[in-house]
Design brief:
single chain, mainly alpha, three-stranded antiparallel beta sheet, globular
Length: 280
């Protein structure tokens, strides 16, 4: 089952972490009953899901979610429609994304002392990158002449191009000349064999955490907040929603439309009646 699951997930373009999450949760289920998941009846599945729903009360309820998704994927793979249909649906969070103002972005970008750290934050915001996409950038992906960045194997293993701002190009040229990276744009610590390795995810979080602390920022800032801010500011600056969808690499327009709820668009800009109460 694991080998089949691995092949199907790889062919579907899902990330390796998806396989890990599904397999881990299905292994727990198999050990609980000492039985392969496809041999369990509906009552056993529901009983187990109820049990883990109570036990794993994490903010994201990720264990419960990955168990359901893993089972759903396996049942679909094995053609077990009855069991697939009987699984509970999972409601997605209706929380709106955290977005920084342009002033807050400027403060965050100015905060780091090292050019490399400023560029890392600048790439997250200026190109709307996911964290793993930033870590995977190689020197060959930069096209300074066309002012474009080639994002290779983004989410869903899809490639895309995004514009490279002039400000970033100037900083990147200065950084590359000084640091002389070999393969990846942002190198981490070399391996034991002395080979170059990409920058670490924890390193990015440290840069953001320090910048947030130095600027006195109260919002919970993560790498993805820079991406949310990129999309929202593009929308506010007049770029159409379909173009933003392509720049973000979203599979569906529904994912992108969440930014319509946070952007301050001129035509639909809301206000309080107190703003106009005392106007002449």
């Amino acid at each position: 089952m694991y080998k089949t699951l691995q092949i199907r997930i790889e062919l579907s373009g899902k990330s390796p972490s998806t396989l890990t999450n599904y397999a881990r949760c299905l292994a727990h289920l198999a050990m609980h009953y000492d039985c392969s998941p496809e041999l369990l009846d509906i009552e056993q599945i529901e009983s187990y899901l109820y049990k883990i729903k109570i036990e794993h009360k994490t903010p994201s309820e990720s264990f419960f979610k990955h168990t359901v998704y893993g089972l759903r994927y396996v049942y679909k793979m094995l053609g077990m429609k009855d069991k697939h249909i009987s699984l509970p649906s999972i409601e997605f969070s209706k929380k709106l994304p955290v977005v920084m103002s342009k002033k807050e972005v400027r403060q965050m970008l100015r905060s780091p002392k090292l050019l490399k750290h400023r560029l890392i934050l600048g790439m997250l915001y200026g190109c709307g990158l996911r964290r793993f996409e930033l870590l995977n950038i190689e020197l060959k992906d930069l096209d300074f002449d066309r002012k474009m960045l080639h994002i290779v194997r983004g989410k869903g293993r899809k490639d895309r191009y995004v514009p490279l701002p002039d400000m970033l190009i100037r900083g990147l040229k200065k950084y590359i000349k000084a640091e002389t990276p070999v393969k990846w744009l942002f190198n981490g610590h070399p391996t034991k064999e002395g080979k170059a390795s990409p920058y670490s995810p924890n390193g990015i979080q440290w840069i953001i955490r320090e910048a947030r602390k130095n600027t006195g920022q109260k919002k919970e800032i993560t790498a993805h907040v820079f991406r949310h801010s990129y999309a929202t500011h593009l929308l506010e600056d007049g770029l159409d929603i379909m173009s933003i969808k392509d720049l973000l690499g979203h599979a569906t327009i529904e994912t992108t439309m969440v930014y319509l709820h946070v952007a301050r668009l001129e035509k639909h800009r809301v206000f309080s009646p107190l703003d106009t109460l005392y106007k002449p």
